[in-house]
Amino acid sequence: MMGLQQHFYKTLCLTMAVAMLAIAPGCSSPQTDPDQKTIPTDSDQWQKKLGQTFEQLPADDQQLLSRYMLRMKLSDAYESGAMPRTTIKQALIQQREYERLHPNNPTGKKSPIVTGQAANATAQTYPVALLPIKTSDSDSLNQVKMQFMLSNHGDVAIQSFQGTLTMKDANLKQGKDFNIPLIQFDPAIEPEQSGKIIIESSIEDINVMRAIKNTKDMTIEIKEGTLVLADDQSIEFGNSLAK
């Protein structure tokens, strides 16, 4: 009888030992390095897939990764499928470099599109004027060098502009649009300073030619486009974007 009890006791101890080994943390497989965890390309899965891994990171890396993910979210990169699969370690490296280049805008946040009354106020802050030009009266098709002057009445220097300018005049039935490619201002247009936007344009309409020769009643407006400031903030103009 004693031998049977000893056998039972040994069997029970062995069973408990095996069970404890099976549930002991770290015994069955090594813990995954959080830096090597891949960020899901579906941003809706970030909380579900990364929650536990996120908590394992140092506090500074948590904040850095949060800014990276917000920057990706704002850029719609993940929703558009433009982003490749990235590990947390790669994301942290990319975000550190981005913040080194853009210290005042770590998440890449853009200003909202300005329309209506806000657009009018912004237009007064960044007015555009047409400088006098030389044209030939004998040409029916005039290749004209247009020189616009963009003034900065804001608080931050202007780095670049790209978009469409519209010329309006009392003698024109409708405005004349001029497409402006990306213009990088070097040096940047400091507050209360002005910078030139120069383009070549072919003009066939004689009324438009007359208007640009006599700029007395002419106004130039930013119809749509993007104006980027030195702090990496951008101002979006867009009458056509306002629905």
Write the layout of secondary structure elements.
Elements: H1 2-23, E1 38-39, H2 46-56, H3 59-75, E2 86-87, H4 88-101, E3 113-114, H5 116-125, E4 128-130, E5 142-152, E6 158-168, E7 176-189, E8 193-203, H6 206-213, E9 219-229, E10 234-238
Helix pairs in contact: 3-4
Describe this structure in words.
The chain contains 6 helices and 10 strands, in the order H-E-H-H-E-H-E-H-E-E-E-E-E-H-E-E. A 5-stranded mixed beta sheet has the order 3-10-9-6-7. Strands 4-5-8 form a 3-stranded antiparallel beta sheet. It is 34% helix and 30% strand. Mean pLDDT is 75; it is low at 1-5 and 7-30. With 243 residues, the chain is an alpha+beta fold. The chain has helices at residues 2-23, 46-56, 59-75, 88-101, 116-125, 206-213; strands spanning 38-39, 86-87, 113-114, 128-130, 142-152, 158-168, 176-189, 193-203, 219-229, 234-238.
What's this, in brief?
By secondary structure, the chain is of the alpha+beta class. The chain has six helices and ten strands, in the order αβααβαβαβββββαββ.
Name the overall outline: elongated
Largest sheet: 5 strands, mixed
Please state how the strands of the largest beta sheet are arranged side by side.
3-10-9-6-7
Q: Provide mean pLDDT, rounded.
A: 75
Tally of helical runs: 6
Radius of gyration: 31 Å
Helical coverage, percent range = 25-40%
Structural class based on helices, strands and sheet pairing: alpha+beta
Care to count the β-strands? 10
Give short descriptive properties of this protein.
243 residues, three-stranded antiparallel β-sheet, 30% strand, disordered N terminus
